[in-house]
Amino acid sequence: MTTTSIKKSSTAQVEIKLTEKAVEILLIALKPEAETPSSERSTVKLSREEDKIKILVVANDTTTLRAALNSYLRWIQGILNMIEDIE
Question: Where residue 9 falls among pLDDT bands split at 50, 70, 90?
Fold first, then answer.
């Protein structure tokens, strides 16, 4: 009997509408983390569409997906809080 290995993955995409300036700041701030993830269990792609930042997370499983997505959403909230405090 032969078994076939099936690689499972979980995916989530989030779009957040913000000012174009905030999107630019977020992309710059999050770029190093997306390029050098702390784990090989997930990958993140950041992109922009005018006044939206798009986050695509692909992970080996739903637990890793949730952890990665929560990290990015918390970083975004923290960065937006800092922008608000500066202005």
Answer: confident
